[in-house]
Amino acid sequence: MTANRVHMKVSLNEKQITIPMGQKFDEIGREELIKTWEEVQLQDNINFIQDYETTRYSHYNPHNDYKIYYKFLFFSSGTYHDDFNILGYKDYELARTRQAFKKSFFKFDFYDSPIKSEQKIMFSSVMPANNCRKEQKLVIVSEDPVEYWAQMANLPPVPTPMPMYGVYVPEAILSTEQGRNENYYIQWLKNRDLFTGNTFYMSCKFYNAKDGRVIRMVTQPPIQPGTGILEPGPYSYEDWFFYQVILRVEDGPEPPRYRYTVHPFSSLNMMSGVVSVQTGTMVGDEIMFYEYISA
Fold this sequence. Notes:
The chain is an alpha+beta fold. It has two domains: about 55-135 and about 170-290, no CATH class; about 135-170, no CATH class. It is about 15% helix and about 30% strand. A hairpin with a 2-residue loop joins strand 2 (about 65-75) and strand 3. The protein is elongated, with a radius of gyration of 33 Å. The model has no long low-confidence stretch (mean pLDDT about 85).
């Protein structure tokens, strides 16, 4: 073959002969390249092994009653009300936990930052609407005549009582007690390699199964100072939508306790590094959420 012809010029004065043949071998290094390619393909197609085991954090309450308190207010007729009737629910639907109400829920999203352009959602939790507390309310005859006359037929004539039943209100007292602990605990990773921080920023939305609306909530009533008039919004993202949630691990002679606390949040606190006083520890100091009103 022409490609294999080698021309050599030999002189009688030369004692060495140089053969002009290439010394490159294509197979050198191919095994290492194949191993590297295999590793890249495995990483692209198989997730890294990560430890997603979680630890359960309970709410730390300085009053030592192991409870956390929420209150939700909805807007109607120029003011806020702690009443599900504002959303179109009748008392008998709330008393009997009808499907439209049973399927409604509050959703809490936890972010790694309050700054909208930087934040990532880390996890979420859901609290069913029927996890709220009940309070006694009069039965309205025009709204629920069957219940009204059924109770009237069995009530003693003296003293003259009125028909009443338990109706859900948008307030929740969550604790370690069975049946009242949904959304009480926070589950977070044991292994902190993925996220080393212990502070999250909690926002809230209400999903209304009766009319399909999603109601975003803010953390303070948007009322103009000194006027009582509701501001039309939009509101400052960092100052209006978040509570600060801090995870804490308490070491001691006993096994460590995993707890969390909830604090009001503002951008001024973020810049100064100050943490507000804990909230949600008693009646009158609930974690408050108000329906967001846009212009």
